[in-house]
Write a structure and sequence with these properties.
This protein has 141 residues and is α/β, with parallel strands linked by helices. It has one domain: Rossmann fold (3-Layer(aba) Sandwich), CATH 3.40.50.880. The protein has four helices and seven strands, in the order βαβββββααβα. It has helices spanning 14-24, 86-90, 94-105, 117-122; strands at residues 3-7, 29-34, 39-46, 55-63, 66-67, 78-81, 110-112. The strands form two sheets. It has a five-stranded parallel sheet with strand order 5-2-1-6-7, with helices on both faces. Strands 3-4 form a two-stranded antiparallel sheet.
Length: 141
């Protein structure tokens, strides 16, 4: 069974993380990678008519399986970068950027959801490519 790497950090969005985790887990082994092996706190974003931005509330927790430093990118068939607040901080992690660059160099599938695009921009792998993102991340793409 092929393995798919799902990236998390504190502030990862619940829906962006758990839907790919469970759906990809139907056909692949899903492996959760993060800066360290520990429990991470996810968040939920809610839209309110009287706010210009989304409201963030605590969500579920998720346990990482492997630290970025221990990931061997050749062992994985795909990569998922969920959104939420986590990408804002994870995009500075050099080990994660190395993983992302490997997937692009090898032409492996990469899914970026919502603010996950911030990590791709930081890895400098989307320059000159056509990508999709949310309007608030268009400057990163």
């Amino acid at each position: 069974m092929s393995k798919v790497l799902i990236i998390v950090g504190d502030g990862a969005e619940v829906i962006d993380t758990m839907v790919p985790y469970y759906r990809l887990g139907e056909d692949h082994e899903t492996v959760v990678a993060a800066p360290a092996v520990r429990t991470y706190h996810m968040v939920q974003h809610h839209h309110r008519d009287d706010w210009d931005i989304t409201v963030e509330t605590p969500g579920y927790e998720i346990q990482s399986d492997i630290a970025f430093a221990d990931v061997k990118p050749d062992d994985y068939a795909g990569l998922v970068l969920p959104g939420g607040r986590a990408p804002e901080f994870l995009r500075y992690d050099n080990e994660l950027l190395h993983i992302v660059r490997h997937f692009f160099e090898e032409g492996k599938p990469v899914a970026s959801i919502c603010h996950g695009i911030e990590i791709l921009a930081a890895a400098d792998v989307i320059r000159g490519k056509r990508v999709t993102t949310i309007p608030r991340c268009q400057i990163d793409a």
